[in-house]
Design a protein that fits this description.
single chain; alpha+beta; Uridine Diphospho-n-acetylenolpyruvylglucosamine Reductase, domain 3; Uridine Diphospho-n-acetylenolpyruvylglucosamine Reductase, domain 1; 4-stranded mixed beta sheet; 20 strands; binds flavin-adenine dinucleotide
Amino acid sequence: MRIQENIPLAPFTTLHVGGPARYFVESHSEHEVSEAVAYAFARKLPLFVLGGGSNLVVSDAGWPGLVLKISLAGVEFEGDIQKMLFHVAAGENWDDFVALTVSKNCSGLECLSGIPGTAGGTPVQNVGAYGQEVSETITRVHALEIATGKTFDISTSDCGFAYRTSRFNTTHQNQFIVLEVSYRLHRNGDPKIDYADLKKFFAAGNSANPTLQQVRDAVRSIRQSKAMLIVEGDEDCRSAGSFFKNPIVSQAEADRVQSLAEKLVPGKALPRYPAANGQVKLAAAWLVEQSGFHKGYSLGPVGISRKHTLAIVNRGGAAANDILALKNEIQKKVFGTWGVSLQPEPVFVGFDRSDDR
Ligand SMILES: Cc1cc2nc3c(=O)[nH]c(=O)nc-3n(C[C@H](O)[C@H](O)[C@H](O)COP(=O)(O)OP(=O)(O)OC[C@H]3O[C@@H](n4cnc5c(N)ncnc54)[C@H](O)[C@@H]3O)c2cc1C
């Protein structure tokens, strides 16, 4: 185990902001993870678990304790004629793994192509896109409990998955380190083409019965057009993805916002989608746009992506506080206009609790 000191964290994140980790260690095995946890425990250092850094805003002050970078590698699979079970070490690059499953003609993850980060990060916020969520295919999360140093197999039903949440970012936040994730996929299964953007892509004549590979390529291409695929040199990719979650509200609240929309922006229908338990999902991007923000909006060295209203981007040389200033401005304006409180999707690291929302 090689403990390093005062390591800048910005290069480990896709937003490229944030100060240093007081201590930093990279773990390549379960044993090394246990050692790192014991090191932090013995010195009473706060521990932060880092994956691919694609869903983080690290404060300018950095992290006062130990940052543990998860670099466990390896993919194993087993299966029968219909199903394939993939066991993926937490540090594996997510999109490389999705490419592997598609190359083996296994369906279930194709719509999640092009999402940055690690496999271990996917259960944390129940990663989802283009009509799929990892909760649909995860069968087991193998994790180390920080308080006891013991490892557990956590079943899907015990993961508490919901829209962009799980037990790992709610009730048991910062209590487990994901070591390995198992996904059950369908061998020779059909690709999922439920999402409007994908339907439009294929209706435009690109293919009548697309293969898994074609769906993967389509998803990556759509993502690239929105700067939701990390492409070297594209400054609109210097983001943490969508910065705000789509608000899930009651029917009555959705009706209230809809009536307001009819008055404030006649002719611009409020997008609303059915969500779990009879609730309604509103489109955060629409609310942001109809509050006076546009693609390409700038506030100093940060701004809104030119290709995606929900992505806050670092245009170069930004500090975490600049990101926070734009986040606050957007939240304030959306709340002032629509009475809807937007919740950020990324994890805030090294801020006071009061800065979190
Ligand atoms: C351009 C772009 C597009 C994106 N598109 C999407 C999208 O379509 N859908 C979507 O859901 N997300 C999207 N994201 C967000 C992000 O990619 C995902 O949330 C991703 O799964 C985060 O994984 P990570 O390894 O980078 O985690 P990190 O950003 O490193 O960490 C995120 C959180 O997970 C925790 N964590 C990470 N690894 C572990 C582990 N092994 N054990 C315990 N905790 C861990 C961290 O402590 C932290 O709390 C996007 C991000 C970007 C930059």
